[in-house]
Predict the 3D structure of the following.
Amino acid sequence: MKILKRAAALVMVCLFATQAFPGGHALSTEEVLNKHLTSFGAGDVDAIMEDYTEDSVIILQSGVLAGPDAIRGLFDALVAEFSKPGMTFSLDATHINEDVAFIVWHAETADNVYEYATDTFVIKDGKIRTQTVAFAASAK
């Protein structure tokens, strides 16, 4: 009976781990960042949203976006802008330290020139919990 209880407990732990962390583990900060940038480059808002939680926030120059609905609205608009023909994007620097990732980039879309931009990501348990975005941009 004691062995059966231990086996049942082990099964429950394994089930929890695989449900909480697909593949049995949380993605690293670098893996989350790479997935996020790849999803953005592909224009896949659903995949982008998988990187966030119900409690995630994005802090912008214009204010704070809290929760999935507000964050999705931002990415719907960004993907629409960055999907137009003629867009260029350059990732100038990437720095990762434990659960924090920092990127510097510049881009040009049909609508705007982003001369300088930075994003900082705080990643916990394989999800972006907090992101900051700052940029200098001018309309065309």
